[in-house]
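Can you make up a protein sequence with its backbone structure tokens?

===
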Amino acid sequence: MHDPLAAGFPKGSQGRLLFWIAVAFSVFQIATAAHFIDMPSQVTRAIHVGFLGLLAFPLITLVRKRGPVLTTIAWVAAMGAVFVAGYQWWEYVPLLMRAGDPLGRDIVVGVLALMLVFAAAWILMGPALPIIAGAFLAYCLFGQHLPSPLNHRGYDFAQIVDHMAYGTEGIYGIPVYVSSTYIFLFILFGAFLEKAGMIKLFTDVSMGLVGHKIGGPAKVAVLSSGLMGTISGSGVANVVTTGQFTIPLMKRFGYRSAFAGGVESTASMGGQLMPPVMGAVAFIMAETLGVDYVEVVTAAVIPAILYFGSAFWMVHLEAGRAGLTGLSRADLPSPLRAVKEGWHLLFPLAALVYLLFSGYTPLFAGTTGLALTLVLILGASAALGLPQGWLRIVFWIGLGLLAASSLQYGIGIAALAVAGLVAWNAFSKGGRETLILCRDSLADGARTAIPVGVACALVGVIIGTMTLTGAANTFGQFIVSVGDKSLFLSLVLTMLTCIVLGMGIPTIPNYIITSSIAGPALLGLGVPLIVSHMFVFYFGILADLTPPVALACFAAAPIAKENGLKISLNAIKIAAAGFVIPFMAVYTPALMLQPGGALAEAVGFAPAVAYVVAKAVISIGLWGAAVIGWLGRPLAPWERALAMVAAFTLIAALPLTDEIGLALFVLFVARMWLSRRKEQSA
């Protein structure tokens, strides 16, 4: 199953206890993010991982309905996770003082911490990530026995455990730092918006805008999944939320089951490419590269638009080929009415984007966005108890001024507003229902964050291995040596690495691993820093569409009632732009609005951007026509071949390939124009 915890908290006393632990986890994370609780970063990370273990072990056991023996073992493991966190907190200063010279008990606790992280990852995500991390840990322990250049000088067992289980290089490294700050907050932000009706708002707006067009139901899937990507941290989660509505809708209007599942999988995974949240990778990338968040988003904007434009084009052509019309306008919701009814849900998103692009830190923006979401949800409920007219207007103006003043006077003002609204809602029936919704959102946010947080902790072992042994340099030198002969082969090798790793690993840990290994190597080959990281990020996402694992496609399979492999093959065709854009950006960084590249040096930055975007649009258009075999009429095999060759030559970025590709494009357009003239005159 794609997410074993998706079913929620089980019934019974243990399930209720875990529910309230999850609420406490979310409250703790909000309190530390807003600096109501100030702790050293190391302690905050340790408590974060402790909460993850406390929830993960018993929750997965209860969800899978294991017997009393395994349930008891799970609770013992959960208490072990709490003990490790408590040890890190209690011994924080002494551990700093004896860093590099651990005591015997430090080693025992460190080994316990590692065992618990490996075990939690195994039960939550299966064996793939633990086996990979275990191989890296084994390399630390025994790598000195390997032949050169794979060997290292050898490290003492105590040194390895100290490096991995303490400090900020191993399981408490940058991935857990980002998980305990940005990722958790944005997952919580998305949980509140979803509970408040954001999915319905996005779906109604999408239906109203494009539902009546040719292939309208599939275009609704693309648009609503793209919008969900702005608040959701998981492409697979998008599949099982928006897909429950869009896939049956597409099938009902004539789309093949495999194609419907492929559309939803492609669009949902693409949500992670869509600013502002980008599946939380944007924040990890900014932290890793030491650049502003805005720089990462700037690089992502054009590729994200091209990705979703490509998906739109593919479903339009498939609808034309199959003669699928849109929905009746009379049966569609009004997008204006949907926005009018759910306008208050858009303000937190707008505020989040404004803060992120105004130079505020993602942590501050996420905390403020979450506070504003709470103010609006609780305020909307409280306002229902007021009479219509000027009193409501005054209430909203006052609440808005109070929330806005938090930018000047601190988040404490927003916290006071939330506390006041909680008290207000506690004394009305509708208000109490809203408070229950908020409480459930806190619990659901924490539950959703468990697999991501555990994956980040385990990936820290891989990062720790590379910082201790320098293993990344060995792999990087190999890629560079290949790149000296052919940059294209280096890129293909990197792409395959990302896809193979991504077959069993979620996007975030996949990005962290591959960017640590391949990012510096691509930089050494002259690829701009952000472009190299976006390259591995793209293929980490596309791994969830690629056979044989294709996680997103198999998540869509039971909804579409179709074989996951068939869905995967359709998804690859629809997501062709995702495979093309990273390669084009490496050869022409202007596609990601980055300086560099021969074209920008020759003609200037702005003309280079315009040219490469136009070239990408043409190649995507040609690819769609070639794959679907329809462009206003069925295409002959030789016409499809012509379109495909033209598309590939425009992508290749080799001497004369652009000229050949554009010439073939003109030939293809001339052929289609003459064919149309012939049909009209007949």
Notes: The chain has a mean pLDDT of 83. The first helix runs from residue 13 to 33. The chain has 30 helices and no strands.
